[in-house]
Amino acid sequence: MRKENSFHLEPGNHISRAAFTLPEMLVAVGLMLLVMSMFAEIFSLAVTAMTTQVGLAKNDQRARTAFIVIDNDLKRMSYRPIDGQQGIVPLVPGLRYKGEDAAPQQQGYIYYSENNPLDDTDDVLQFTIYGSQDNNRYPEQNLSYYGRAKSLSTNTAVRDQPDWDDGTPGDNVSISKKAEVVYFLRHGTLYRRTLLLREATAIPNNLQEYDGTNDQKLAQPAVFSGGNPVDLMIGYSGNFYSDFDYSAHFGISPYDADLTPPPSSPNQVALFHDSLSNTGANNWPLGVPHFRFGHHPVVGIPREYFSTGGVDYFFGRYTHEETSNANFQYPANNSGNVFTRNDFDLAFYKNTGRLDQFAGGSRRGTDILMNNVQSFDVEIWDERASRFVDIGSTELAGQDFSTVNNLNPSYGPIKPNRTGPLTSNPKEVNVFDTWHSDYDSNTDPDDLTEALKVKIIGNGQPPYVPKLFSATIPDWQPTQNYNLGDSIFPTNGFRTAPANRSNPASVGAIRYVCVTAGTSAGTEPNWAEVVDVVDGAFVNDGTVVWQPVDNRRPIKALRIIIRFHDPNSDQMRQVTLVHSFNEDLQ
Fold it and tell me: 220, 202, 375: which is closest to 283 by C-alpha?
């Protein structure tokens, strides 16, 4: 008889020994292992899902933070559409707005450098912002920006200095509603650098009387001593960007130009900026590239590359860590050689994303917006292509931002391994810039008034000026019958550049429209060298009367695409921001 072992309940609820066959026991153990494996798998999936969700949540938070910061800056752009324009238009030398260099809305600048259209890691976006604007688009705007401002004098009674501008001397803090801001990507880190424009609030009466409305002097820290103002930056021995978060450039002190006789060796110092106005007189208009952060103060070309072994490497702009290195020095002086030096260690740069000659500055991380960023892609709306585009793309033949429409190929990031002078052979020329309408060249280095001016870049034109009408409109013709509404471009006058600038119609920024039909003269009329886009003078031509009309096509929008990675969840995300320049659409 087969002996069996079994478990059964006896009276009194005692468990006695029972029996399983060996196969049954193996099945039971297998089922138990299967259930445990299922629970382990479910637990693993749950943990993975939770990790992924945490990563997604972190990415979403980072995206929201970056989105809010960038969106707020774009909303506060100081360069805006003018009356009658559904977007922004660049300034062009020779064009005026109601007799002024620029319209009241055209303050500061917008600069966008695409560099290589096939690379989404080398774009630079730089523009000016105004935290308090009287407009209907964003009525909630009322924002101040804060920055560092070291005291320039141990005497707290010396009030015309940045440390006083927030109303609290001695706190090494300043405040302003105006600033330059620049975005660039380097080594997986998206940087946002902000530089205040000085809003002096405590200038003594004796300096106010001397400075008047001269923005060059109002911006410059000074003390009244010995019957004259004395520039407080003379003798400054610190590293500027360690001590100040200000927009400034290196040049001759504006106070030296008023001395009689002028000094044989004028003082060169850091020149503070205080105005977004693009009016050229007694101002450092930031529409002029020479005065901006990251641009060479003599030739105006931006620096975004360094070179080693004949190869150029993009770095965008110097970071706050690098500019706060004691060796940097600019804009207090040029001893750091920041615009031309190339003695950077390439291996160190590739491993760390930092430039060794200026690494280790005291303010590392101050300008970091996001980490683990894979790409930062800026695009601009091309009306003819009817889409957002990368400037200079080979897909844009015949469109507004195709390379052939770049009117100033001398303007672009410096190519360090150039073979010609500094103004020649830039690395990339795929740049959009709102530019400036009137700046001159330094014609007499012995005249300090002239020495305060800057040299024009190339032919003086902005790189891209999209046009409503281009070469499809015929040039002016002699003894030609013209009907009401016909448009032409001049063939002389504007086509011959003045000594220091090219005229606007040479690039089609102005066209002439027939307002009185008739027959043109046998000789072309003398077209005006400077044209007002609002109140331009009529030109009599035989029995035809011509009226100048603004021919610039407005640029309506900008798009920014950021792709970033969460290393914990290994998740890639993308955020897209579209900013319209068309204020009527808001």
Answer: 220
Q: Is 210 exposed, middle or buried (0-12, 13-18, 19+ CB in 10 A)?
A: middle
Please indicate whether residue 39 or residue 344 has the higher confidence score (pLDDT).
344
Residues 458, 423 contacting (CB under 8 angstroms):
yes
Cα dihedral: 281, 285, 290, 295 (round 10): 170
- pTM metric for this prediction: 0.86
Sequence-distant (6+) residues with CB within 8 A of 127 are 73, 77, 78, 79, 108, 109, 110, 111, 180, 181
Burial of 258 (0-12, 13-18, 19+ CB in 10 A): middle
pLDDT tens digits, residue range 387-410?
999 998 878 887 999 888 888 888
Q: How many whole angstroms separate alpha carbon 193 and alpha carbon 205?
A: 34
CB contact at 8 A, 199 and 178: yes
Query: For 5-46, what is each residue's pLDDT tens digit?
Result: 444 545 555 545 555 677 777 777 777 877 787 877 787 776
Query: Rounded to whole angstroms, how far apart are CA atoms 122 and 367?
Result: 17
Strand partners, 433: 111
Residue 57, pLDDT score: 61
CA distance 373 to 429: 25
SS3 304: coil
Three-class secondary structure of residue 240 per DSSP = helix
Strand partners, 125: 112, 183
Question: What percentage of residues in the chain have a pLDDT greater than 70?
Answer: 84
Q: How far apart are CA 150 and CA 163, in angstroms?
A: 6
Q: Are 303 and 238 in contact (CB under 8 A)?
A: no
231 exposure class (CB count in 10 Å sphere: 0-12, 13-18, 19+) = buried
Q: What does the alpha-carbon distance between residue 55 and residue 484 come to, in Å, rounded to a whole number?
A: 65
Please write down the HEC assignment for all residues of 438-502: CCCCCCCCCCHHHHCCCCCCCCCCCCCCCECCCCCCCECCCCCEECCCCEEECCCCCCCCCCCCC
For residue range 88-127, what is the model confidence (pLDDT) as tens digits?
Answer: 999 998 889 999 989 999 999 999 999 989 999 999 999 9
Pair type for strands 487-488 and 531-532: unpaired
Helix (H) or strand (E) holding 320: helix 320-323
Instruction: Indicate if the pLDDT at residue 424 is higher than 60.
Output: no
Amino acid identity for residue 374 in this structure: Q
Q: Residue 354 in contact with residue 319, Cβ under 8 Å?
A: yes
Give the pLDDT mean for 465-479. 85
Q: What pLDDT score does 206 carry?
A: 75
